[in-house]
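Exercise 7.
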Amino acid sequence: MDCLLEVENTDSQVYSKIWAEALALLRGVIPDNVYYSWLTAIAVNSYEHDTFYLVTPHQLALSVLNPHKKDIKEALCKACSKDVNVELNYDADYCKRYNELKKKEAKQSKQSAENSVKSDADLAGSAVLLRPEVNLNLKYKFENFVVGENSRMAYAVARTVAEKPAQKYNPLFIYGASGLGKTHLMQAIGHYIIFNKPKLRVKYVKTEEYTNEVISNLQKGGDRVNRMEKFRQKYRNVDVLLLDDIQFLESKTCTKEEIFHTFETLYNNGKQIVLTSDRLPKDIPTLPDRLRTRFEMGIMVELTPPEFETRIAILRNLAERDGLNIPMDVYYLIAENFKDNVRELEGAYNRVSAFSEIDGAELSVEYVSKILNFTGSKEKLTMDKVAIAVANEYGVSVNDFKSSQRNQKISAPRHILVYMLREMLGESYESIAEFLNKKHPTMLYSYEKIRDELRNNGALKAKIDEIAKGLKR
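Solution. The predicted structure, written as tokens, is:
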């Protein structure tokens, strides 16, 4: 590639072209939630002395993108075929111009969406609305699912199942706490198959509804045998069975028997089965071994609470869908206060957007705080308070955290403290490093260590939840 910086016309158009090429190189290298929420908003301000001076409209982007600075530099070096340096700064004037542009785009997007409602409804009707037995919610599609570190594996496996049903990952077992997107991913599989493989028969049902059908058919008078046979064929003559909230099988003996034989029939006939639960099969106490082993024979993927950057991306996705221009500090406020549950996060957004529309009010931190009852309700949580709580829990002092000691008694709770400061307060790695008298890379290592350990360590998660609960009282 010829060096773009050697051409005579080194104006903003050339810089923008270089940055566009760098962005293309970074796609897939940097996580999607970071790429689309933070990286694509960056612009080139100037190029001097072999240094690209980039500007962002988001103050938080400085800490979010810092771990990816090396990747950004390498992409820019490749884009212009020479060694260059990179400086990223927040620019208030650019922020103002950027927000005005986004507001204009949102308005145009909303108008376009209104004009396309009829065509979208026709398309949906041809595939889903004309097949009501499928029982899917039209909003639960892959396109509407915001992927973060908390859901990357689950999303990738779900897409594979949708594209190649019964060829790989069968059964698929998705587990995680309530409100994290299990039903969304499950129904997204169904939607994808309906639109792309229309000959396949898809059936979605909640375990509780399935149980009620079993009970109803057993209790009714008349030809019970014939009635149960029709019920069984309803769920066994499908190509893809989506069974939601399987944990409700705990005390349903008759339903367990029916699901066992339905599972056997479908699996042996090469049909895809997808299950969701709020816990692993081994943690459902009354689940028979013959069902547990079958649920575990495919692949099990977990959804965990979204990290701060993903929560921001979810809120921005909702606002773009509705054509709303929301200031970043409002996103931060909501994301910092709703951490554990995507459903609650969306509920907070819906409440704020509804009140804003009714009142005709501009969205600001003060207005949103009032709507969500943040003001005056609790004393502000600080890094000192979180540090004291963690120190007390593990029998050490805050000064120990700030010392150079590296023994396990100090380093283990220090890792937990870094994770909690990041998750609970949304603090940057730089500010945490300054608070603990440490270096920034160490803080990143601590956070990622705990984040990864939480995926398989239920006791650690319970301990952190206990400390957090005490801080929120």
